[in-house]
Amino acid sequence: MRRGRTAGAGVEVVVVGRGRTYRRAVVATATTILVAITSALSTPAGAAAMVLADGREVDGAAVTAVQGRVPYGAVPADGRGARGGTPHGRGPDGTTADGRGARGGTMADGRGARGGTMADGRGARGGTTADGRGARGGTAADSREARGGTTAGSREARGGTAADGRGARGGTPHGRGPDGAAMDHAPSRRYPVSVELASLTPAVVRQGGELRISGRVTNTSGRRVGAARIGVRIGASGAIDTRGGLATVARRTLLTRADGPEVADRTARLAPLPTGAERGFRLTVPVPDLELDGAGAYALTVHVVRADGAGAGTVLGLTRTHLSAYPDATRLEPLRTTVLWPVLDTPRMEALTLRTQDSVLPVFRDDQLTAAFGPGGRLRRLVEMGRGQPVTWVLDPDLIVQARAMAVGYRVARTPGDTDPQQATEGKGGAAAAGWLAALRAAVRGREVIVLPYADPDLASLARGGGAPLAGLLRRASRTGRKAVARVLGVHARAGVGWPAGGELDDGIARYAKGLGLDTVLASGAGVASAGELVSEGATDDGAVSLEGGTTALRYDAAIASQLFASHPAAGASGAPARLRLRQRLLAETLTAARELPYARRELVMVPPRRMPLAVGRVLLTVVAEGRKAGWLEPAGFAAALRKPTTGRLRGFDGYPLARHASELPPSRLAAVVRDRLRMRALAKVLSDARATAASVGAALARSVATAWRADPAGAASYQRGVSRYLTASIASVRLVPKSTVVVTGGSATIPVTVDNGLQQDLTGVELRVLSSRPERLTARDRAMPVQASRAVSRTVRIRVEAYANGPVRLTAQLYTTADGRPWGAPMTFTADVRSVPSGAVIFVLGGTALIVLAVAFRLRRTRRP
């Protein structure tokens, strides 16, 4: 038996025997090559598939049947007997409808398929399997044994892509963002034309009316695309019943039977497109023509197909979104929806301050908050957008403190982390900060407000990295911040709420949060389970859960959070497609969640990113308004979501994204913060106004462990180093001025020692001690002299000494704190040259020395007697 392969068409031909059979095989091979060449020439570059009249897709070639015979490389109506080609309704991998006799392609049951795709993957080599059993080098649906390919579930995938990222090795989780959240992507651009939707009105369709769609198409291929038409399809299976089904629709790239038939007579003509050309389009479809079968989310596909010529019906491009329908007669129990509205930012204020005669001016790392607080800035727009909306405000007290400091007066460091306040320049954002505080005060009046711990500390990093010594500091800072919010905004904010990064919660984080006085923790529903869940794991997570130890976990919806965290749509027209895709997906998610248990009273908590982009916030408010108007969402407050928690447990974070663990604050940095706290305590002992400095440095230490630094590890390291340098410079600024030699004349004298106070406040709480290396020649009469010095001045302290003999004596001067008697700074050693000691003093010293010698000799003599 001999085997030949046609390289051009990628078709394997098995030749058995000789003679006429051999000649027939040769003829068949030649015919296959000719058909493949003809198909390639008749199909425009980049065209991926043809769509038949019934919506089934043919990839790469038209279906031709001449006198009932099916040529090689083509597909019969039922897909039976196809060889080396693509069957009805399948993509470029060549899948047959029933798989009988397919070679080099794909079979429904996969029996005997080589180099292709099988439905169950039995025996497949180098191809794709539906469940991945035994597949090698290909793609598996759940990838239980797939190697080197792409996996949908990736439970044991190696070197591939996983849909949920669990257990993937050497690859990238499918559709995951930097925080591990699942993302929706537009269909990959395998087609020569890209399709983007700019608007879809109405967002939720009702009984009648029209669905208006607009967008643009772009020729992304290297060749001219001929005349085409744009059409609409609704998913053949009707309303999507599960939230997992929504993700499946979003991941699909090729046009299949599941997309349903094209809505008849509701298409738009598209003129030929030169290379790189872009053209807008509009479609209007009466809602009854969509033939929707009730409330629910439907897959909506907008496609471009060739309108005429030899390749008529060939798919040129497509895009998908979700269409939510809620007929007027629908009566679902609305989801009680709590929407958090975070107003947070990265810390900007340093530990450094500049003292003047009248005030103490804080120093900021940069002046970026000026733009954020000003008109059109992110923080200003967030406040304006959230005013009057049914949201729960989430505030960081540190941001309020910073805004208040800017409004009163502040300075900006020459470089971040600079230790010289004199080099700082005047800040320009006082008016912007004052205006922002006024707008925030008006927005939160009468609304529900949550105040996070001061500077929003990274609970997960602190719990795992040894942050126990910082718990007391964080508790005190949080009490101060809570009072500041009440004083500046005039509201009674709810405290005792923690927000771990990514909603991660385990026993250690729960215990640490409890130690900080946090009774409630916002947690992803993926990690917390209630004892009596009404729906299976992976569906909508709802309600508060009471955990062991007295902590209440308020679960927020993980699927919605993943969409919000992964979306960063741009402002303006360029971001319209991404905003539309996010809006329709969130509407579909919430509606499908309501349909899970249509008559049960349930809670839904929606949590956006901490530094929420404006476009995401706008979409979130639109979704809540549309769902509320339709009837499946009902706004609720934070307190209502916490009402009547159920008993539950922690699920754990199996497959938790490594990227999130990698972004945690390293233990070495936390250890440095702990050391800085000890040094701050030492500095406070020598200051006349220790409370102000302790508050400034303590707030900076709390900012050093803020969750916001996860997005900026370089900034986190820079900020912590700046606090350390400030403490080092402050401690070093109280020092003894070096000297080399002093001359002591006479028996009694005073030796001057200069203490330099480089601090910006008066120096107290220290004393000076001087020790002699030759006390028989010179001793200090004053064992300890208290030192007081005004800010930024030097003070000379005079130590009284007694000289007994001429000659050099080494003296050591050292500062000590009076509170605990510990050394401060480095000692200073100098020489005292004793001269002109009176003879009487010398005789007195010599006589005393002689007496001592005689006494010692007499004692030794008596000791030696028997």
Automatic annotation (TrEMBL):
Keywords: Membrane, Transmembrane, Transmembrane helix. Residues 93-132 have a biased composition (Low complexity). InterPro entries: DUF6049. Pfam families: DUF6049. Residues 74-186 are annotated as: Disordered. The chain crosses the membrane at residues 841-860. This is DUF6049 family protein.
